[in-house]
Amino acid sequence: MSGLTSLDNVITLVTEIVNLISSQALNKRKFDALLDEINSVYNGLIMYNNVRWLSRENVLQRFVDCSEEIRLFLQNESKIEQYPQLMDIMWLLKLMFFTDICQHFNELNIKLQGQNRQLSS
C-alpha cells in the first residue's frame, strides 16, 4: 500500500506546485514570461481537475516537460527550498513512472471506449 501512497504524494505535490504557479496571477505572468524568454513550446501549465481523472496524465506530462523551467522559476522566487523533492532522483523517478502509468491507462481507456462503440453498433 505504501507504493500507492507514494504515487498519491507525487500528484499532491505536483498539484501544489502547479497551483502555486498557475492560480496566482503574478506567479502565472512571471512563469509565462520565463517560458517566453527561453522560447518554450509551452505557454503555461495545466491545472489538475480531480473530477476528470483523465486530465491527470496531461497535467503530469506537462509538469515533466516543464520541470527544468519549474525549478528555475522556483529558484528565482526563492521557493525551491520548499520543494526538495524536485532535486530528489527517487521522487523524480516516481513522477516519471506515474506519468507513464497514467498515459497507458488513458490509452487503454480510449481503446476500450472504441470497442464498446463497436459492440453497441
From TrEMBL:
The gene is GTF2IRD2B. This is General transcription factor II-I repeat domain-containing protein 2B.
